[in-house]
Specification:
Number of strands: 10
Radius of gyration: 22 Å
Strand content: 5-15%
Helix content: 40-55%
Largest sheet: 5 strands, parallel
Strand order of the largest sheet: 2-1-3-4-5
Order of helices and strands: EHEHHHHEHEHEHEHEHEHEHEHH
Number of helices: 14
Length: about 425
């Protein structure tokens, strides 16, 4: 079967984005399917792929207030421009955008592969929520594949939140016409499976579960260019540690790119006072600047978003616990039996993860970490006291989820 993959996220400087697409590609290869083309989510908008705009954007990020103001103005201009600027929010916009594709104005290098393929496989990720354009773009490609190209289409590996009425209206119209829809966590599955018009099981875990755990000794093999363990009062071969992560809800443009550095610092202080050794993990670029600052302040290790998956998994799989609101790092850590204490994220996915592993369902607000640090420490101590019993249960469940995750590509063989 020939497949066109939409939302190839391997170019993203985010641990989870890279892991998910790598996993989906590996699963399609196991089905003897051939990927004849792929499209980055950001490529749907012609503005974002303009080289000059990319250079200007990178430069302006050094001037936060100016960047935020210009970004806000650019967003308003794009919204006013509608489908001509890649802003989509309705079937009418979808129709106009389709016309631009067929005329060759955009997507000229991708249309031949879309026409050639047997299946459009849409990596849904956490794209569909709020008023996010990436959500509308994801729904567009599903609609375009079925309505305009008459292709088989599967929306897989995804979390969604249709609280925004225009997004919900499109979801209710598009989900029923798709050949397969797979939700990656139980909360959104329970909420939105009614959109589907078939009896197929539609809840299967994230594709990232398929990766094997990385063992403790690999911590010592992390290159010195990434971390010099000798600079810290920490022995990677034997000392216990806790990984602190960010959240998909932090550093968002619509929230003024706020990051609760003082609250994270207060949590770090509390952890250290209780004898826990923290390591800061910036699995996404939005976490890098604040976590680098905090790691320097507390003289603890820091790992950035470019860290290769093997080294990242060595850190996550062998930690005593993860604290944060990052979905994929918690998945990767679970393969080693690592429990997670979750903060809020941009969707219900963090609570969904806790339900999947029968962990404490208390979700913490990252802007309140200073006030709830005692509760976090209490849960952490409970997890550590359960020792190998808990870790073994998490590993076993993650192993089961790895087998179920293969269903994300069932449309490739049906």
């Amino acid at each position: 079967m020939k497949i066109f993959l939409f939302n190839d996220t391997r170019s993203q400087n985010n641990w989870g984005c890279r892991a998910t697409t790598d996993a989906l590609i590996e699963l399609t290869q196991g089905c003897q399917a051939e990927i004849v083309g792929s499209l980055l989510l950001e490529e749907i908008s012609t503005i974002k792929t303009n080289y000059l705009m990319t250079v200007v954007k990178k430069h302006l990020k050094s001037f936060k207030k100016t960047y935020f103001l210009l970004r806000t103005l650019a967003w308003k201009a794009k919204k006013m421009g509608g489908s001509k600027f890649g802003y989509l929010s309705s079937i009418s916009d979808f129709e106009s955008f389709s016309d631009r594709i067929f005329s060759g104005e955009i997507w000229s290098k991708h249309l031949p592969a879309l026409l050639e393929c047997d299946l459009v496989l849409v990596n849904g990720e956490g794209s569909i929520y709020g008023e996010e354009q990436k959500g509308f773009h994801t729904l567009f490609i599903c609609w375009f594949a079925k309505v305009k190209l008459k292709k088989k289409c599967a929306l897989v590996n995804h979390t969604c939140d249709f609280s925004y009425p225009p997004m919900r209206q499109l979801g209710e119209e598009i989900y029923p016409i798709l050949d397969d829809v797979i939700f990656r966590e139980p909360i959104c599955h329970e909420e939105y499976r009614a959109f589907l018009k078939n009896d197929k099981n539609s809840f299967f875990p994230d594709a990232a579960f398929i990766f094997d755990p990385v063992h403790r000794e690999e911590l010592s093999n992390i290159p010195e260019s990434m971390v010099d363990w000798s600079k810290y009062p920490f022995d990677p071969a034997q000392d216990d540690y806790v990984c602190i992560l960010g959240s998909s809800i932090l550093g968002r443009p619509e929230n003024g790119e706020l990051f609760p550095i003082k609250q994270y610092s207060a949590l770090t202080a509390k952890l250290i006072s209780k004898g826990f050794y923290p390591i800061f993990i910036a699995s996404d670029t939005t976490d890098e600047a604040p976590f680098r600052q905090l790691a320097a302040q507390w003289n603890v290790p820091f790992f950035d978003a470019s860290t290769p998956r093997h080294h990242g998994m060595a850190l996550l799989c062998n930690a005593s616990c993860l604290i944060g609101g990052r979905w994929h790092p918690s998945i990767l850590g679970s393969k080693g039996g690592t429990p997670s204490i979750m903060t809020t994220a941009n969707t219900t996915k963090t609570l969904g993860f806790l339900k999947m592993f029968s962990l404490s369902e208390m979700i913490f607000d990252p802007f309140e970490l200073d006030r709830c640090s005692d509760q976090i420490i209490e849960i952490l101590q409970v997890y550590i006291s359960q020792g190998e019993t808990l870790r073994s249960a998490i590993r076993q469940r993650a192993k089961t989820y790895a087998l179920l995750a293969e269903q994300n590509v069932r449309a490739c063989v049906e």
